[in-house]
Write a structure and sequence with these properties.
This protein is of the alpha/beta class. It has helices at about 25-35, 55-60, 65-80, 90-105, 125-140, 145-170, 195-205, 225-240; strands at about 5-10, 15-20, 40-45, 85-90, 110, 180-185, 210-215. About 45% of the residues lie in helices and about 15% in strands. The N and C termini lie far apart (about 40 Å).
Length: about 250
C-alpha cells in the first residue's frame, strides 16, 4: 500500500483534514477536492502506522503519535507560509483536530462522527478485528497463525483504547473555554459510536459558535457517498461565514 497523504495547494486559506482509525486520507479525498475547487489549500496527512499492508503497524503507534502528526501537519502548512488554517477530522481524526483547536492557533475546527465526549461505548473492536484478520489472510497467513497474532496484538489494542479514553477525558473540561467556531457533523445511523455524543459535545461548547449538522440516514463514514456530498456543501457554507482573521 502506498502513502495516501495529499496536498492540494490552491488558495491562501488552508484546511487540515485528519482521517479515521484503520483508515487513510482516501476517506477525505473527495472532500479535499471540493475544498480545493472552492479555493482552499488542503493538506491531509497519513497518521503513523496507517496506510500499510500490516495492521500491526497501527498498533505500534500511540495516540500521542497521532496528536504529534497533527502538530507536524500544522507546522508543514505554516512552513509553507499559510497563517489562516482550520482543522477537521473524521472519527479519530476529529480527536486530533479538537486537540489542535484547544491548544494551537487555528481559526476554526470541527469533527465528523467523532467520539469526542465519551468513547467508552465505541465499537472499534467489532470493526478492527475483522479488518485485522482480513489483512493477515491477504498477506498469506493461515487461520491458526492469525489467531496467535491476534492474541499477541490484543494487549496493544486495549492499551490504545485506554489511551484514547484518557485523551478524551483530558480534553472535555476545556470545551467550555473554546471561543472559535466549531463545525460538528454526525450521522444518525452511526454503527461505530453513539451518535448522541455529538449533541453532548455541542452542548459543552458553551462559548463557541457551533454549526451542528445531523444526517439522519448517514453511517459512521460521513465523507463519502451521498452524505459526503451534503457534508461538502455544509462545510463550505461554514467556512464562508467564519472570521478568517481570528475566528473569534
Amino acid at each position: 500500500m502506498r502513502d495516501r497523504t495529499f496536498f492540494f495547494e490552491n488558495g491562501p486559506r488552508a484546511i487540515l483534514l485528519f482521517h479515521a482509525y484503520t483508515s487513510t486520507p482516501n476517506d477525505m479525498r473527495s472532500l479535499g477536492r471540493a475544498l480545493e475547487r472552492a479555493n482552499y489549500t488542503v493538506y491531509a496527512p497519513t497518521f503513523k502506522g496507517h496506510g500499510t499492508a500490516d495492521p500491526d503497524d497501527i498498533l505500534s503507534a500511540r495516540p500521542e503519535d497521532w496528536v504529534n502528526d497533527g502538530r507536524e501537519a500544522l507546522k508543514f502548512l505554516r512552513d509553507k507560509g499559510y497563517e489562516e488554517i482550520a482543522v477537521f477530522g473524521l472519527s479519530l481524526g476529529g480527536l486530533v483536530a479538537t486537540k489542535l483547536l484547544l491548544e494551537e492557533s487555528v481559526v476554526a475546527g470541527g469533527t465528523f462522527a467523532s467520539p469526542i465526549v465519551d468513547n467508552r461505548k465505541i465499537r472499534i473492536a467489532e470493526n478492527f478485528w475483522p479488518f485485522y484478520e482480513y489483512m493477515k489472510k491477504k498477506a498469506g497467513h493461515s487461520a491458526s497463525r492469525i489467531e496467535v497474532m491476534k492474541e499477541d496484538a490484543e494487549p496493544k489494542f486495549e492499551e490504545t483504547m485506554s489511551e484514547l479514553q484518557e485523551l478524551v477525558a483530558s480534553m472535555v473540561p476545556q470545551y467550555g473555554e473554546v471561543t472559535k467556531p466549531v463545525f460538528i457533523a454526525q450521522g444518525g445511523q452511526d454503527e461505530m459510536i453513539d451518535p448522541h455524543t455529538a449533541g453532548e459535545f455541542r452542548d459543552l461548547l458553551t462559548d463557541a459558535k457551533v454549526d451542528f449538522h445531523w444526517y439522519e440516514e448517514a453511517p459512521h463514514v460521513l465523507t463519502v457517498g451521498e452524505p459526503g456530498k451534503q457534508l461538502q456543501l455544509d462545510l463550505l457554507t461554514f467556512l464562508s461565514t467564519i472570521n478568517w482573521n481570528g475566528g473569534e
